[in-house]
């Protein structure tokens, strides 16, 4: 659920972000000896509704617009700030996680908290609920933008690039006999196609076909190439090599038929299921081979719908 | 069943993805042949295998499986562990044999994949 | 537990060879790696595998296993079954995957090999 995810995301952010990230610095302050009347200009000019009272760099109280209004009503404009301020001040440390600030607002019901450095107790900023909300929104927006850039969709490419037909080809070289790296090309291809926004169920089928094809090239040949050609409606995976070729393709396609050596079996491959797997997970497959010349395997997966012959819903349910 | 419960049930040591042990898996899948994993496994499965090579990680990655337990006391080498970490997989090892792992997990209620037919294949499930 | 009871309880399809169903199953072993079975399976074990290669019969014979359960709906070639028949190795087939077969065998009380 998208709402659940963004809710959790905000929770995460309140732990990740610090009070320092959300507070406003360069705080307007008053000293305890100043008369209340001084507040009028300060609040009007700075558009604030309260200010910390600071003596020798330390916060000794908070004075708010409510205090000012009371004094105004009683004609006490020359009373020093110290006599009308709230003396017992709750502060936040600049290095506390934002979630502490959220809790403190809940607990005290105050409109603002002065922010001080943990060590020096020196006033460095002030924070309101509005500051917290703005900070979270800003952060979410940045993350959203990053995510959007990250998940740039294949469909965007095909919409943005104006041509009658667009075709993106990804190629990977496969070293024959290099079993250690077997699977690397298919894995890289999967990642690349994921970046292009191919839907997971379809992506999985393409990756499986590519993996089996890559495995065949590594186990049976001196090397070759794996390629994926992507256009708006389908992905075509092609594996080519230059030998030794398959003598009897029909036989090679039989489930469990295998000419793999024992060492390959002991490594978990070569049970004769590779070509069947490719055929079963793609929409079309073509295998062409000439003994002594090489083999070309081509497999097609259509985008935006289930496997050929299957209802899309059924395919989704199984994905 | 959570990966944590699974780990405890089969006495596994967690090598990567310690932060994801509260993730749930729905089915168990036991195989030493990777083509069968590709043909049948679902992305919500934990793969139990006696292989400890990098191809296990690649196979799981390609099949969209994010939890792998290497059984029979085989230890993957460092590049394999690193690869699992890169691919965001939870990788565990246990000294227990396959039969015992399946038996204990099944007894705790983790189901298998149900009836399969290799001749029809099932690459798109 | 006798092999015949295992066949009945799990609903396995027995191919050929019915002679040795009264054999006591000493434990279960699940593996698709022949070298591993050679090293670690014990006499009288029932072997759960998806391998249908000719060599499985040879391994089962050498290790004197009680029988082979082939999973995932796989069917060995007739030559492999003929060899099993000839060697007196019971071969059982099922559409269940190895995980579930091992799970159900365990449920019936069959255990793995103690270290």
Explain how this protein is built.
- The complex is a heterotrimer of chains A (319), B (125) and C (115).
- Chain A is of the alpha+beta class.
- Chain A contains 14 helices and 10 strands.
- Chain A has helices spanning 2-16, 19-22, 38-46, 65-74, 81-84, 98-108, 129-150, 154-160, 184-195, 200-220, 249-253, 262-266, 274-281, 312-318, and strands at residues 50-55, 58-64, 92-93, 112-116, 123-128, 168-175, 223-230, 234-241, 284-290, 294-302.
- In chain A, strand 3 (92-93), helix 6 and strand 4 (112-116) form a beta-alpha-beta unit.
- In chain A, 31% of the residues are buried.
- Chain B has 5 helices and 5 strands; from the N terminus they run αββαβαβαβα.
- The longest helix of chain B has 10 residues, at 54-63.
- Chain C has one domain (3-107): Udp-n-acetylmuramoylalanyl-d-glutamate--2,6- Diaminopimelate Ligase, Chain: A, domain 1.
- The longest helix of chain C is centred in the last third of the chain and has 10 residues, at 78-87.
- At the A-B interface, helix 9, helix 10 and helix 13 of A face helix 2 and helix 3 of B.
Question: What topology does this entry show?
Answer:
The complex is a heterotrimer of chains A (319), B (125) and C (115).
Chain A: H1 2-16, H2 19-22, H3 38-46, E1 50-55, E2 58-64, H4 65-74, H5 81-84, E3 92-93, H6 98-108, E4 112-116, E5 123-128, H7 129-150, H8 154-160, E6 168-175, H9 184-195, H10 200-220, E7 223-230, E8 234-241, H11 249-253, H12 262-266, H13 274-281, E9 284-290, E10 294-302, H14 312-318
Parallel strand pairs in A: 3-4
Antiparallel strand pairs in A: 1-2, 4-5, 6-7, 7-8, 8-10, 9-10
Helix pairs in contact in A: 1-6, 9-10, 10-13
Chain B: H1 3-9, E1 13-16, E2 27-30, H2 34-40, E3 45-49, H3 54-63, E4 67-70, H4 78-86, E5 90-93, H5 98-107
Parallel strand pairs in B: 2-3, 3-4, 4-5
Antiparallel strand pairs in B: 1-5
Chain C: H1 3-10, E1 13-15, E2 27-30, H2 34-40, E3 45-49, H3 55-62, E4 67-70, H4 78-87, E5 91-93, H5 98-107
Parallel strand pairs in C: 2-3, 3-4, 4-5
Antiparallel strand pairs in C: 1-5
């Amino acid at each position: 659920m998208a709402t659940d995810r963004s809710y959790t995301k905000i929770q995460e952010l309140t732990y990740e972000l610090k009070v320092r990230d959300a507070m406003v610095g360069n705080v307007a302050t008053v000293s305890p000896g100043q008369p209340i009347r001084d507040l009028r200009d300060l609040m009007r000019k700075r558009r604030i509704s309260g200010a910390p009272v600071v003596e020798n760099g330390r916060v000794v109280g908070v004075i708010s617009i409510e205090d000012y209004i009371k004094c105004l009503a009683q004609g006490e404009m020359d009373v020093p700030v110290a006599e009308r301020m709230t003396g017992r001040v709750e502060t936040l440390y600049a290095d506390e996680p934002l979630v502490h600030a959220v809790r403190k607002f809940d607990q005290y019901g105050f409109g603002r908290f002065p922010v001080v450095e943990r060590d020096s107790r020196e006033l460095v900023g002030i924070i309101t609920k509005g500051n917290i909300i703005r900070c979270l929104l800003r952060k979410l927006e940045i993350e959203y933008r990053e995510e959007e850039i990250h998940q740039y969709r294949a469909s965007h490419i095909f919409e943005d690039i104006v041509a009658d037909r667009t075709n993106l080809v990804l190629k990977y070289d496969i070293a024959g006999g290099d079993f250690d790296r077997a699977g690397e090309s298919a894995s890289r291809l999967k990642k690349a196609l994921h970046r292009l926004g191919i839907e997971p169920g379809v992506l999985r089928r393409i990756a499986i076909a590519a993996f089996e094809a890559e495995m065949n090239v590594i186990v049976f040949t001196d090397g070759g190439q794996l390629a994926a050609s992507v256009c708006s409606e389908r992905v075509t995976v092609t594996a080519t090599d230059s030998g030794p070729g398959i003598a009897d393709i029909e036989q090679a396609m039989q489930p469990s038929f295998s000419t793999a050596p024992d060492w390959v079996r002991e490594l978990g491959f070569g049970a004769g299921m590779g070509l069947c797997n490719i055929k079963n997970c793609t929409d079309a497959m073509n295998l062409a081979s000439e003994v002594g010349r090489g083999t070309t395997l081509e497999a097609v997966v259509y985008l935006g719908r289930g496997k050929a012959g299957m209802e899309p819903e059924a395919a989704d349910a199984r994905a | 069943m959570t990966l944590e419960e699974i780990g405890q049930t089969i006495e596994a040591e967690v090598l990567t993805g310690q932060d994801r042990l509260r993730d749930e898996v729905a089915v168990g899948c036991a195989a030493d042949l990777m083509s069968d994993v590709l043909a049948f496994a679902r992305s919500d499965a934990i793969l139990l295998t006696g292989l400890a090579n990098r191809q296990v990680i690649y196979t799981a990655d390609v099949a969209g499986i994010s939890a792998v337990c290497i059984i029979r006391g085989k230890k993957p080498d460092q590049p394999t562990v690193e690869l699992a970490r890169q691919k965001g997989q939870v990788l565990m090892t246990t000294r227990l044999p396959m039969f015992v792992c399946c038996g204990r997990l099944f007894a705790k209620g983790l189901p298998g994949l149900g009836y399969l037919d290799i001749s029809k294949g099932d690459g798109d499930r | 537990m006798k092999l015949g009871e295992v066949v009945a309880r799990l609903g396995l399809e027995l191919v050929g060879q019915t002679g040795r169903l009264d054999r006591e199953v000493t434990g279960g072993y699940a593996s698709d790696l022949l070298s591993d079975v050679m090293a670690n399976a014990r006499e009288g074990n029932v072997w759960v595998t998806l391998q249908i290669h000719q060599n499985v019969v040879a391994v089962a014979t050498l290790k004197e296993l009680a029988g082979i359960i082939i999973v995932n709906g796989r069917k060995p070639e007739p030559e492999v079954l003929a060899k099993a028949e000839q060697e007196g190795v019971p071969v059982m087939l099922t559409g269940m995957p190895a995980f579930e077969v091992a799970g159900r065998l365990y449920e019936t009380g069959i255990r793995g090999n103690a270290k």
